[in-house]
């Protein structure tokens, strides 16, 4: 036996190079062609005249808006079509003894990949991560390799929102030895957790491609957030039966004393480093960040995290990054999350597809709970060419890959197998629900599975009747929530989607205190609204299937068994411009607009969802003389608010229980509106809004002045149009031009107006209601970036950023 072991070990050493896993950023230097040219898959194809670019890349966002684009305004009226990508590369020395994998985090959609002319396969789903083993097709030694990717987003419409087109997420090349941990090859869970100890279970999947039995040791070391050693788990030592050729999974465990639990307030992460040793040499090292937490959904008491009851205060988010389109950028994702965190949001639903892996890593680090959703449709379509055409063939693999990829993220607490799935309404929903839940449970039993349902009559809802969901996800239907426990005895409640309130940032129609639903039930889906495609930003307009922000929050807040909600939507997103037709091309649903500027409702949530002191006053103070204007204040940490107009009191207002704002009706006169909040007679906060004069200058507010010189980092610069006294000019729409000198480039401009047809990539953009945004991207070089903003008739303004 011993002798046999040494022979095998000697044989293996031929296969195993001393280098371990190498991960190569495969984003730089691709060639791109917008159009179809099937000969581009041939390795010898001359792509010299193609455009050179770095991934991630979304060609749709670079295009012009047009009503004629087949994607329609529901997909932001941007171009789609077919595109080709090619990259010529060489492999590092020693690669011939290793396995070479290419990993794509997401390609929208129908990607087909060739390496050196060999066809690797097709992946229709535009949101899943996938990879190919390209070892057999690589040319030997230092020879050049060519990868070609065809992306086909030409069959339209295929989505209800903007998808982007292209290789819009990261790509990497992974080189491993012939015995290595498989892709997504660890699974770390903590089935027993208390204050003293966490028992941590580790599953490691070894991929042994030597074709022979492998021997060695597999172990995982746990480090705390400061990098200090915590404990070690050993899977298997010399002398055991050996790793069979192919893939095999080993389970083992370790204990962590006095574990620090992951929570939304303290998102504490441990790191597991799994090593594979063969012949005394480490042949692979695989790092898995993870967190230790436990949670529960209780029929009566709702949600608790680490034993502490809390509500899930969530929003739904699509994947686009506004002016940057779908192209993944970590800083842009982090900014969105920071803005939501500051509002008090603690959870996000990834509507309606798996997110980018970096986005989940940010949620782990920043402390968000995630509902990770798989599908917007199954076999039955919502659009002619959507995923329904691929569902039968691909749903198993797509769902499995999502769970395998995302299962170690402490942020992910719920899997959703689908949003408003049509199979709710017919009996095929029963077996499909059972099958999909089974696919998830075969891989992960530590998280509940839900589906976002709309049909509330259980006799008509076949997904419900499958009786396979752990949580009953309900979209809208808020009037039924108080009676939920009587209607659905024993079921655990989650409002998977709520509100669909509508608003344009900074636009106000009077009166504020009557709620309107668009379109009125039974009416044709037309826009009875404003000629400038605006919707009032008092929280009093909503889609008829939803409610204002206050209406649903009032219900959720009252009952513990209502474990939480996901507001539709956190940010405005590209596409679905309800209630307007073209030229509207992005949504009105966001609590925050497309450019990242909060609408007023943001402060309602902030006053309810955080303990920060809030006093927010609306609207602006520029009206026609004598007009009756409704003035609202959102406030907290105070008993009352008094409003003054030009130093005359307009009265004191107090919120009654379950009120979320106070209102005064004021006859407009120019001057100063001032709100003062008080607690026990003492001033807590004051807020002043002055009548603004004409635009006089530009105020430049970068969210970040020091950038990483990595070719990716971003500074989001807000341009505010001020009068000569420094007041924001509320309706200002001055055209702003940006000029950049030095180590930066313009990544995009936006103003948050959903019916703007200006290109996001142009260097000039109008302001909307006084604000404009320019996104500056660092070059991979250190130095200064001088950014100058100009606008006709106004002095220009400059800021200097630095890259390090
Ligand atoms: C829901 C749907 C969302 C979005 C929303 C708009 O029914 O799940 O994707 O379309 O309506 O109100």
From TrEMBL:
One of its GO terms (molecular function) is beta-galactosidase activity. Its EC number is 3.2.1.23. GO terms for biological process: carbohydrate metabolic process. Keywords: Glycosidase, Hydrolase, Signal. Residues 301-480 form the Glycoside hydrolase family 2 catalytic domain. Residues 698-799 form the Glycoside hydrolase family domain. Residues 187-293 form the Glycoside hydrolase family 2 immunoglobulin-like beta-sandwich domain. Residues 1-19 form the signal peptide. Residues 70-174 form the Glycosyl hydrolases family 2 sugar binding domain. InterPro entries: Beta-gal/glucu_dom_sf, DUF4982, Galactose-bd-like_sf, GH, GH2_Domain-Containing, Glyco_hydro2_dom5, Glyco_hydro_2, Glyco_hydro_2_AS. Residues 626-684 form the DUF4982 domain. Pfam families: DUF4982, Glyco_hydro2_C5, Glyco_hydro_2, Glyco_hydro_2_C, Glyco_hydro_2_N. Belongs to the glycosyl hydrolase 2 family. This is Beta-galactosidase. It comes from Niastella koreensis (strain DSM 17620 / KACC 11465 / NBRC 106392 / GR20-10).
